Amino acid sequence: MNPRHSALALLVAVLWGVNFVAIDLGLHPDGAEMPPLLFVAMRFTLVVFPCIFFIRKPEVSWKAIIGVGLLMSAGQFGLLYLAMALGMPAGLASLVLQAQVLLTVLLAAGFLGERPSRLQFAGVVLGVAGLAVVAVGRSLVAPVLPLMIVLAAALSWAAGNIVARKAKAASGLGLVVWSGAVVPLPLLGLSLLVDGPGAVSQALLEVQPVTLLSALYTAVFGSLVGYGIWNRLLGLYPSSAVVPFTLLVPVVGMTTAWLVLSEVPTPAEVTGGLLLLAGVATAVLRPGNFRRRDPRQRAQRRVDVRAGGRADVAADLAPDLAAAVPPAEEAGRLSPEDAARGARTRAD
After folding, report:
1. Alpha-carbon distance 327 to 290, whole Å?
2. Over the stretch 192-219, which tens digit does the pLDDT of each residue have?
3. Which DSSP category does 49 fall into?
């Protein structure tokens, strides 16, 4: 990628890394507790409105839109917010959620018939080993249930990736907005069922400014700006050139959590996290991504592109040229008017 697009990909990684700290601050404003499912419903209400009135529905089936909304949005973020409300540290959540890359590889093999390469399989094994180390280290200092819920969120995200890949929507941002419309009402209903109408109404009446700012940040910068840039880059470059930037998300997330929330991971979490990131890197990075192309190949490619452009122009002008130039077998013939004029000339 060129420097400008690389900087944009880096910006997305920073936005998504900070996103986890923003979620944590919104869930625990000044010692209070925001119902997590209600908080997700608030976020996606801001994602959808007013954008849905200006962004066209993507040309995919409603089944795909609902599937992406339930899995990639409601399932992923509902479980993630729930885990963080139960005590999952923001930095560790940003790390464990990267398991979605490995789970996507496995689900693609099972549902899309995309057989993983040896490197991808090795990356999955390495990543699972890293998750096991994180789980063991986490169980020694805190309940492991929030960690399992984040893994369930990663699985929901991976399943949403499969649905989105099968849908092949031309507008990634359109799919984010329209699938987001699936989220608010179901999660509001679940929040009323789980937390109770009294807790929901009290949370809405006494909502703190930090919670509103958090919802605004996650909706605008996390979803709309982040995914808008991301899907644009995926439209310009191969995924193998763009996806590796997600490896920076947990680095930013854990660093921001350390600076803002004073979260310090345990040695076991650091070790397991490094193994997990190594597994993700093995699964997504390709050796060919870093090979320099021969200058002669680049020059030949430019020649081919120019030649192709000239060929396209010639093809476009061919009908006009054919109409203007007579066929070869008629080139020597005279029109009837010219023949009559010549006969009169000879008679005179």
Report:
1. 53
2. 999 999 999 999 999 999 999 999 999 9
3. T
